[in-house]
Amino acid sequence: MSTKMPVLFVGHGSPMIALEENNFTRGFLQVTAEIPKPDVIICISAHWETEGTFVTGMETPRTIHDFGGFPRELYEVQYPAPGNPELAGEIIDTLRQYSVGPDYQWGLDHGTWTVLKHMYPDADIPVVQLSLDRSKTPQEHYSLARCLSDFRNRGILIMGSGNMVHNLHLLDWGRINDDDYGFGWAISAAEKMYGYITANNHAPLIDYFTQGEDFRLSIPTPEHYLPMLYALALQTDNEKVEFFNRGFVGGSLVMTALKIG
After folding, report:
1. CATH for the 7-182+221-260 domain, from 3.40.640.10, 2.60.40.10, 3.30.830.10, 3.40.830.10
2. For residues 129 and 61, is the Cβ–Cβ distance under 8 A?
């Protein structure tokens, strides 16, 4: 029998993290050393939003360079991990109440491969992506995620990738490399999130839009926040959450990551 796998939520920040070596990438390496090597990875990335929910079903997902204005070196990076059509079919069956469909066009976007490039550089673990349905409420995303819990018992690592605080419009480009520098509202929101997570109190995190101005500034759009809810939804009553990679990018992106289990 396979060991029950932990669940991860990772803050991925800029696509340039794929080429960098810093405190955050060292955190990815450290957590990889602490957990069993997965047989397959299911990733919920902030960068695949759809109408309806889809799962990648191809044998060989492409590496998607879904960004602009970066050095040529970044566009040359490939992450040739295989897909797993059989698992995609099982996910579709497990989530049949949500009418999930297969996708054969997408691949691995930068929310997935820029992190996995550090965690599993050999790209030898099959990766399947699950999309974020724009029409679903946070509670619906959370409920959908809970249906994935049995996959943890089969050597499958489920990973959300986004940023719990993510406001590009207010980014301080002059402090982009200062991971100790955060705006007051970002620090406040992150600390409240840490408190709710530590207390296993997910309700206010699901209803984040009721949490005041600091949360409104921290989550102007939900796509980078929702992957964290997918991870938290898979936490069982006796499981602890460990925080790693606490830090900021440009004052308005929180890079904090979570390991559950």
Report:
1. 3.40.830.10
2. yes
